[in-house]
Design brief:
This protein is an alpha+beta fold. The protein has 2 domains: 306 residues, START domain (Alpha-D-Glucose-1,6-Bisphosphate, Chain A, domain 4, 2-Layer Sandwich); 241 residues, Alpha-D-Glucose-1,6-Bisphosphate, Chain A, domain 4. Helices cover 35% and strands 24% of the residues. It is elongated, with a radius of gyration of 44 Å. Belongs to the HD-ZIP homeobox family. Class IV subfamily. GO terms for molecular function: DNA binding. This is Homeobox-leucine zipper protein HDG3. Its main location: nucleus.
Length: 721
């Protein structure tokens, strides 16, 4: 029985009266009667008795009936008032204070039992949660990717990785904050920046057998028919883009041992073993039969960071800037837009593109990817690409982009420091023409230095058009051209360049019926009311060949007006007179020239020619125009309505064998000609017309090879020439 059922009782030897005494001596309870000792007399008597002799205590147990009645009352009312206690004490024969203390003890006991019970329940729940947590941890550690069967567990993180994950959480919070606002704008096209829009115009498409536009896909590609991903995959794509941005920021700033010296001495190549250690999670395992191309390069370009970002985030401007590398580009869906008009911070879009080496003998690379732009700090931007073709069913592309892109840091005077990272996996075994294997397999064809050099060269062109005063070389007999006329000439040269560079790859795999040249590709196009193109049937022919001379030697040879009769079959042995030279780059060889034949009956024709070179590629592109149309352009009229051109020319690339022939190596030359064979688009094309354009290409190749024969050390040329 619990002690709450007993009260202490003092035995008084003087009167043999059993008194129940409280702990403070304020009341005495006898066996047969109750008396409250509140007077000073009783207090003194109590103190006197305490000194007389030791007292013996005993405990009075409540009866079962009393306990039962009090428990019954307690269940109905745990806190009785004075009136209820007095009534209960009368019924049970107990003092009201006994009733009060019993209820207090009962409440304390119930609370203790309840706390103990809740504590046991919490302990059990805690053990259950620990068990579930451990199960989840084991499941995460042993999880496998359903697509690649590779482990997805997060290994031990380095300090740098930890910092990146902190930034990752910040980016996630930002995406959540902007998701509501961005959803209202999803699907809308990004507006072009006014300064960039009038300088870099979207190239026009050509009608005919194939389309040669930058913003649409031709019949030879299936990327144009792709639709955006499922809504269920979009959160995964956003997460993938954020992780790709983290990886790009590390890849663009860390040097050794992640990056090592490259082939050309300036760009860096990736240490794959160190990459695997640094990015243990990565973006999935490397695919079998795919080889890796990874490089990094840095350059100072003459354009501010915002204009560069705009050029990268608009597919028309992007394909125009890199027209020597991109044949077609398309934005399929905008998942996120920038934080405001003209601001691309946070923009995220799904794109596809077809990449090229300007040659009819090299197959293109098709990529399907997500592009993410993020402002890292004031004047510091990053743009990253990562492939997402694995999210589409029934699609197997041969090129896959791991996190690639650029870090743009604005510096004074309108310049920017750009660090470019290019990291791709490609399956091109057996698909690369033997002459281009060294160039492509060394990573020079699509490496970071190629992208960066192309960007730098295009920024030079744009800067030259907005500069006050054009660098013009005036020679005796040259003509004076106003600044507006120079702008129109440069714009016309830009249209020539885009049309010419897009033509070479369009001819890939095209051999016209009746053609006998294995490496000469011929294609027919019909132009009907196409701006900038003469109406009628146009024949295009192109081929590529190797020359044992450095790209610099070949570029200087083609651009020298005194050498034109050595390769131009149509010049009939006559040289050209330079009427003016308009510079459009830091190198004086980068220019647009107006030429005219000397001592010829073709007094009504002029030639516009652009010569352009950078460390990775060179071009010599020209077209013939009638004098009245050219005079209108010179006077500042819009060239799009008056000038019709069919550009022809040369693409000069290194052969990738820099150690074979001196320090400069050999050159890979692509020659492309266009010829208007009939001004009536409804007429039939004859075999003789095809033979004529083929013979023109073949004769030009023979003349060039005669000027640059194989050296005696080559009893067997590297490419079988």
């Amino acid at each position: 029985m619990s002690q709450l059922n007993m009260v202490p009782v003092d035995i008084n030897a003087a009167n043999n009266n059993n008194n129940f005494n409280n702990f403070n001596g304020e009341f005495n309870v006898g066996v047969g009667e109750f008396s409250i000792g509140n007077s000073s007399e009783n207090q003194e008597q109590g103190l006197g008795n305490s000194h007389r002799r030791d007292r013996k205590k005993r405990y009075h147990r409540h009866t079962q009936t009393q306990i039962h009645e009090m428990e019954t009352f307690f269940n109905e009312c745990p806190h009785p008032d004075d009136k209820q206690r007095k009534k209960l004490s009368t019924q049970l024969g107990l003092h009201p204070l006994q009733i009060k203390f019993w209820f207090q003890n009962k409440r304390t006991q119930m609370k203790t039992h309840q706390d103990r019970h809740e504590n046991c329940q919490l302990r059990a729940q805690n053990e259950l949660l620990k068990t579930e947590n451990q199960c989840y941890r084991d499941a995460i550690q042993n999880a496998l990717c359903p697509r690649c069967s590779g482990k997805t567990a997060v290994a031990e993180m380095s300090l740098g990785e930890h910092q990146l994950r902190i930034q990752n959480n910040q980016l996630k919070e930002e995406i959540d904050r902007l998701s509501a606002m961005a959803s209202r704008y999803a699907g809308k096209m990004i507006m072009s920046h006014p300064q960039m829009s009038h300088l870099v115009q979207p190239p026009p498409s050509e009608s005919g057998m194939r389309t040669i536009g930058r913003d649409v896909y031709g019949n030879g590609s299936f990327l144009g028919s792709l639709v955006g991903p499922d809504d269920a995959d979009k959160p995964l794509i956003i997460e993938l883009a954020i992780r790709a941005m983290e990886e790009l920021m590390t890849m663009s700033q860390v040097v050794e041992p992640l990056w090592m010296g490259g082939v050309n001495g300036s760009s860096l190549v990736l240490n794959l073993e160190e990459y695997s250690r640094t990015f243990q999670m990565g973006l999935g395992p490397r695919l079998n039969e795919f080889r890796t191309e990874a490089s990094r390069d840095t350059a100072i370009v003459p354009m501010n960071s915002m204009h560069i970002v705009e050029g990268l985030m608009n597919e028309n401007q992007w394909s125009t800037i890199f027209c020597g590398m991109i044949t077609r580009a398309m934005t399929h869906e905008n998942l996120r837009v920038g934080s405001g008009p003209g601001n691309f911070d946070g923009a995220l879009q799904i794109m596809s593109a077809e990449l090229q080496v300007p040659s009819p003998l090299v197959t293109t690379r098709e990529i399907y990817f997500v592009r993410y732009c993020k402002q890292q700090a004031e004047g510091v931007w990053a743009v990253v690409d990562v492939s997402i073709d694995h999210l589409l069913p029934n699609i197997q592309l041969k090129c896959r982009k791991r996190p690639s892109g650029c870090l743009i840091q604005e510096i004074p005077s309108g310049y920017s420091k750009v660090t470019w990272v290019e990291h791709v996996e490609v399956n091109d075994a057996g698909a690369v023409y033997h002459m281009y294997k060294h160039l492509i397999f060394s990573g020079q064809a699509f490496g970071a230095n190629r992208w960066l050099a192309t960007l730098d060269r295009e920024c030079e062109r744009v800067a030259s058009m907005v500069a006050i005063g054009f660098p013009t070389i005036e020679e005796p007999g040259s003509i004076m051209i106003p600044d507006q006329g120079k702008i129109e000439i440069l714009k016309l040269a830009g249209e020539m360049r885009r049309g010419f560079l897009g033509l070479a790859t369009t001819l890939l795999g095209s051999t016209y019926a009746g053609s006998v040249g294995d490496d000469i590709k011929v294609m027919k196009m019909k132009n009907v009311n196409e701006p900038g193109k003469p109406p009628g049937i146009v024949l295009c022919a192109a081929t590529s060949f190797w020359v044992p001379a450095s790209p610099k030697t070949m570029f200087d040879f083609f651009r020298d007006d005194n050498n034109r009769n050595e390769w131009d079959v149509l010049s009939n042995g006559r040289n050209m007179k330079k009427l003016t030279q308009i510079g459009n780059g830091r190198d004086v060889r980068n220019s647009v020239n107006l030429l005219r034949n000397i001592n010829t009956n073709q007094e009504d024709m002029m030639t516009i020619q652009e010569t352009s070179t950078d460390p990775t590629a060179s071009y010599v592109i020209y077209a013939h125009l009638d004098v009245p149309a050219m005079e209108k352009v010179i006077n500042g009229a819009d060239d799009s309505d008056i000038a019709t051109v069919l550009p022809s020319g040369f693409v000069i690339l290194p052969d990738g064998l820099t150690q074979t022939i001196g320090n400069g190596g050999g050159s890979l030359i692509t020659i492309s000609f266009q010829m208007l064979v009939d001004a009536t688009s409804s007429s039939q094309l004859t075999i003789s017309s095809v033979a004529t354009v083929e013979n023109l290409v073949r004769a030009t190749v023979v003349k060039i090879k005669t000027m640059f024969p194989n050296p005696p050390c080559f009893s067997h040329p590297p490419f079988g020439n």
